[in-house]
Amino acid sequence: xxxxxxxxxxxxxxxxxxxxxxxxxxxxxxxxxxxxxxxxxxxxxxxxxxxxxxxxxxxxxxxxxxxx
Length: 68
What we know:
This protein is mostly helical. The protein contains two helices and no strands. The longest helix is centred in the middle third of the chain and has 42 residues. The chain is rod-shaped. The mean pLDDT is 86.
């Protein structure tokens, strides 16, 4: 009888573990956060070259101005 009870407890534990979705929600949030971070890095990488060129143009324009 004692062995049967342990098996039943273990079986119930496994069933409850399979029904629990809190870990799945955590994985969803981790994947979503990683996607947002990746998108942010991609945006910064694509905008960076344009802003460097613009900064150089502004620097040249300001450097060529003479003040009387």
